[in-house]
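Hey, I was hoping to borrow your eyes for a little while. I've been staring at a protein lately and its backbone has me curious. You're getting the sequence in one-letter code plus the fold written as tokens. Would you mind checking whether the tokens look sensible for this chain? Here's the protein in full, and shout if anything looks odd to you:
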Amino acid sequence: MTSVLGEQTESLLIVQWLEQTYADGPSLLGANASAMAGILSRTGIAMGAIDASVHTIITRKVTAPALFDETPVGLRGRRTMVEGAQRLEESRDNVAHASIPTLDIISAVVFFDYQQFRYGQQPWLPDTPSLRALAEGTRQRASFQSTDVLRSVSLGRHSQPGGQCSTAELCRTSH
């Protein structure tokens, strides 16, 4: 079994491989060192918030959500998700709708979509209209459409042990 940390490490190795293999194409890390610093910073914010989101879901599955959510660890995870969303929302001026998304944009969209999928109805989830607009715009790209888990869920293609999910709500409550 691969841990979340292992998956993040694997993801970063894949980015490194892409950068070297397709060095003549656009970079996921930006055009220069100055751009790269901001991209990596925003990517780190999104990855940290994704990590807190996933760990919260995993822990909720092995404990009672009502018991876990109000513990110091549960509250810290929630705070990390909220602060991550707010920081990404505040960095909207630095995250343009690029013709080729950089790693920060990809990470921010994955974070936003995961938050909406798992926590969309939670009152503590901050309103992030700029992040929503970025996600909606980026999802129009063919590469995002072909890998969109939420779209697969809504089309009933998301496998569940013993059956298929027919709606995002069913999958949200059964995972």
The mean pLDDT is 79.
